Fold this sequence. Notes:
- The chain has 274 residues and is α/β, with parallel strands linked by helices.
- The protein is 39% helix and 19% strand.
- It has twelve helices and nine strands.
- It has helices spanning 14-20, 22-29, 46-55, 59-62, 78-84, 95-102, 109-112, 135-149, 160-168, 173-195, 219-222, 248-256; strands spanning 3-9, 34-39, 89-94, 114-115, 124-128, 153-156, 198-204, 223-229, 236-244.
- Strands 4-5-3-6-1-7-8-2-9 form a nine-stranded mixed sheet, with helices on both faces.
- α9 (160-168) runs antiparallel to α10 (173-195).
- The chain is globular, with a radius of gyration of 17 Å.
Amino acid sequence: xxxxxxxxxxxxxxxxxxxxxxxxxxxxxxxxxxxxxxxxxxxxxxxxxxxxxxxxxxxxxxxxxxxxxxxxxxxxxxxxxxxxxxxxxxxxxxxxxxxxxxxxxxxxxxxxxxxxxxxxxxxxxxxxxxxxxxxxxxxxxxxxxxxxxxxxxxxxxxxxxxxxxxxxxxxxxxxxxxxxxxxxxxxxxxxxxxxxxxxxxxxxxxxxxxxxxxxxxxxxxxxxxxxxxxxxxxxxxxxxxxxxxxxxxxxxxxxxxxxxxxxxxxxxxxxxxx
Length: 274
């Protein structure tokens, strides 16, 4: 079985990634990574897309239709599928991830911030409540979990791009700078991740518009990048066409070497090595 680190940069739009992800774009240019343009399902809101990315299901099926739906995931997801196969899972993420995949909700920062023994479908985690929690600290949390628990699947979920985007809009220097700062962290860490045997996925849950809003049916709100660093995936730039973000969860399962859930789309829109 394989190991995967899934970096979900909140509100990272496709055009911004193309402009700011210098090292990842370098890897694509030199045929060391794959890049896809991924269209997010609707609504282009955070909690629904967390669930879509982790389950491979649209919102009408998984039922998380808006951010105010506060409950545990009711569908098979990457964490539950890993658990069935005896794999170790971890998350350095916003508290909504804790709510969805540990069975503990609403999130209580006094009791739920640190998960050091299995609960629900997660084995370990470090969670935050404030949306301005520094991305640099969040990536450090992810590194702590990787080095201490050696998870087979690790979700890393920074929030600063989303928070700053809401305040300034996607064309602002502030939003672009937040994206750049997150990519700098990834550039610093991804070679260590690869040397430790991990396949690496970098994407966003949704984008952000010029007004600092998202949730609707507009390309700038829906289109996100998908970078894949894996010897199991054909390398190169495949952005001449869009793929659906319903393909993210099946991709993770294939990289991990575990069965897909019955509801996941079986069609593989991502070019795999033979």
